[in-house]
Design a protein that fits this description.
Structural class: mainly alpha
Number of domains: 1
Radius of gyration: 22 Å
Strand order of the largest sheet: 1-2
Helix content: over 70%
Largest sheet: 2 strands, antiparallel
Distance between the termini: 64 Å
Mean pLDDT: 78
Number of helices: 22
Number of strands: 2
Oligomer: single chain
Strand content: under 5%
Low-confidence stretches: none
Amino acid sequence: MDILSLIGSSFLTVLTPSTLLMLIVGVGVGIVFGAIPGLSASMAIALFLPMTFSMDVTNGICTLVALYVGGVSGGLVSAILLKMPGTSGSVATTFDGYPMAQKGQAGRAIGIAVISSFTGGMASFLVLMFVAPQLANVALKFSAVEYFAVIVFAIMMVFSLAGRSVLKGIIAAILGLMVSTVGVSPVDGVLRFTFGTTELLNGFSILPTLIGLFAVTELFGLAEQKHKMGTEKIIELTKVKGFGFSFREFWEHKFTFLRSFLIGLGIGILPGIGDTASNMVSYSVAKTTSKHPEEFGHGAVDGIIAPECANNSSIGGALIPLLSLGIPGDGVTAIILGGFMIHGLTPGPLLFTTNRELVYSIFAALIVCNFIMLALEYFGMRGFVKMLRIPKHILLPVIILMCMVGAFAANNRVFDVKTIVLFGLLGYVMKRLDVPVAPFVLSFVLGTLLETNLRRGIMLTQGSFTAFFTRPIAAAFLIAAVAALLFSLIKTYRNYKKGTQ
């Protein structure tokens, strides 16, 4: 009964006029950022993170998750109308969404995609609400030794699975760890890599770093490709009854929905993989298991349901390790982790005991945001389509100005503005060299936590490393980390051999 009353009060908190307004704005802005090719949910959250400073913690975090929900779903708009995925998590949506639109069924294609997004998101949020607290209860029994092993596993997973080359993933992860060591040591207060500069005493602030890596990097890329932008023909929406997708059709494809939801949820939980992989894997499985695989690529309904259901269900999956363990599930949740830190909170098992109201408010906000997303994409779709026509020479200066203001607002330091330029250039170089950014971000965000738990674990065991391999939970995670690395190395080697034959 206590849980039910807590859930009820959380919905009452979220449905207050001020919070509800922020959720509507957040979902709407997220859809726009997701719909415009080159922008993303990551960029939206990085840009709006400074705006949450003046909000109370509930409104601030709920706004960030609203941007997350809208950003992931918004990619379907340009994927179907432009054959250009608005986000990396909507790549597979183009395979059948655009062909259906070319047949004069653009409205129906978007309706199917919206319903699929809503269904996948809602199912994953309900799982999150009931699984995360139980996982947090288990995590409360973790010592520094177990936490170190979990973080190693998270980093190992992300750099071994985030790119085509495991070597590049390792380089990115090591670089992120190196940057995280700049400043004062978290345990003994030793200065490291400050080069006599007082501005580096606290290291690189997480907010300007993330804005640089996600927002400024993408802006550099868009500026480089400006001659290619805006030349695509946008297919106009057609009038359809409702969503163009009846309940009978929904029921006929129930197994596709269920399978795609489970794939998205499972992949979302794995650190560093995210909606991009779930989108592609779900589409591939749907095509493989279909009775009519020849229809895929020509406007198959299952070809739209599978990727959109999976990429939205990965949202709930990615939030499970973030809230219960303090480990980001993907790049977007790494930025949301920064939002928690800005408000003086650290996600993890203690959050469920010290800030239960906030946690359940986040659960309630996700469910409400899902309904808002459904309404906005149904009633406001034509308006979002017009957003695709905004000239990039108008859009880019506005966004870069927001980046600068947001970075400066973090600590009122010009150094933070320099930081976003520095990491924007670094991210751009990494992108040109095909080095994945996700391993860098996860390692940078978790670097201090990794070092702190390693040193605390050594102190706890009086200088012995044996506990890291003899404690069952720690040993299991370390073995899984090594297995993930070996699997990735073998896969990369096989791909290399195929490429040379």
